[in-house]
Design a protein that fits this description.
Largest sheet: 8 strands, mixed
Order of helices and strands: EEHEHEHEHEHEHHHHEEEEEEEHH
Oligomer: single chain
Number of domains: 2
CATH class of the largest domain: Alpha Beta
Structural class: alpha/beta
CATH topology of the largest domain: Dihydrodipicolinate Reductase, domain 2
Distance between the termini: 53 Å
Strand content: 25-35%
Number of strands: 14
CATH superfamily of the largest domain: Dihydrodipicolinate Reductase, domain 2
Helix content: 25-40%
Shape: globular
Length: 326
């Protein structure tokens, strides 16, 4: 292949700005078709974004001979189905996070891609953003010494009645569609960054509960990870909080690095008591750096930025975190 001609399965809200337009903005890449079950919405998306083709049937898009790569951007409950269909057709896949609803299906996707020799990438796109690449660089250079502990907190107030009623939000709190509510929706970005920063996991434990009763899924999750490197991670997710919070702190023997995952475009590096704030330009399309890396990988010009097996490992961390205790 000399150019990647993309087809999107599931041209919903996430593709409007975060990802969709970027497929036409990176070198050697073009978005030529989109699919959505609602034909009118698929046609509307294609018209507004200047996409030549649209479909209401996923298999028809997959079978289009002009398309040589598939982006699966549906809710997680259908990720495995569409990914396997694309692999069967011999087409490489870029699949949204969370990779799927559970670890077993994620591992099946990764193993099938490997066995069929088809390329598969998971959209943990923050690892290609300059802000988080800088964090990884600072850790590798031991700018804050040896990393000992990571503390992460994400808190959100309960959804409003209006948000509950909005289909764009409602599916994210339905375990049958999202896999595990807001924790499954948001934590993949954070847990993947920890895996990206610190490598293989030695042990993971967690507990989960539903304190507020607003959702079918748990609204409080605590995860503890011991990495093989010796780094210890503690993360807390509360979706029934009185006040929002988004914070991560990496503590080392000489200092610390602190940042938000979702809220800002800066990191703070404190070494020997002196703090420096590093600010990065906000991205119009947050997935564009990752999509460029995916295109390069599909064209054999670069490594896989986030393999199916890495995505499956993140699903294992998520699944272990929400297991009930007692």
């Amino acid at each position: 292949m000399e150019k990647i001609n993309w087809g999107i399965i599931g041209c919903g809200d996430v593709t409007e700005l975060k990802s969709g337009p970027a497929f036409n903005k990176v070198p050697n890449s073009s978005l030529i078709a989109v699919m959505r079950r609602d034909a009118a919405k698929a046609e509307d998306y294609a018209r507004r974004h200047g996409v030549p083709k649209w479909y209401s049937d996923a298999q028809q898009l997959i079978d289009d001979p002009e398309i040589n790569a598939i982006y699966v951007a549906t809710p997680p409950s259908t990720h495995e189905e569409y990914t396997l269909a694309a692999i069967k057709a011999g087409k490489p896949v870029y699949v949204e996070k969370p990779m799927t609803g559970d670890y077993a299906s994620a591992l099946h996707m990764a193993e099938t891609a490997r066995d069929k020799n088809i390329k598969l990438v998971v959209a943990h796109y923050r690892r290609e953003q300059q802000r988080f690449k800088k964090v990884k660089q600072l850790i590798a250079e031991k700018a804050i010494g040896e990393v000992r502990l990571v503390r992460l907190e994400l808190a959100k107030t309960p959804l409003t009645p209006e948000e509950f009623a909005d289909p764009k939000t409602a599916w994210r709190i339905d375990p049958a569609i999202a896999g595990g509510g807001l924790f499954n929706d948001l934590s993949p970005h954070q847990l993947d960054l920890m895996y990206y920063f610190f490598g293989e996991v030695a042990k993971v434990t967690g507990l989960a509960t539903n304190q507020g009763g607003f959702y079918k899924a748990d609204d409080m999750v605590i995860t503890n990870i011991l990495f093989k490197s010796g780094v210890v991670f503690n993360g807390t997710w509360c979706f029934n909080a009185g006040k929002a919070a988004d914070y991560c702190e990496i503590q080392g023997t000489k200092g610390k690095i602190s940042f938000t995952v979702f809220s800002t475009d800066s990191i703070t590096v404190e070494i020997d008591g002196k703090a420096e704030v590093l600010t990065f330009e906000p991205l119009l399309h947050v997935q564009q750096p990752m999509i460029e890396a995916v295109v390069n990988y599909f064209l054999d010009k670069g490594p896989n930025p986030d393999s199916g097996f890495e995505g499956a490992e993140v699903m294992r961390l998520i699944e272990t975190s929400v297991k009930r205790w007692g």
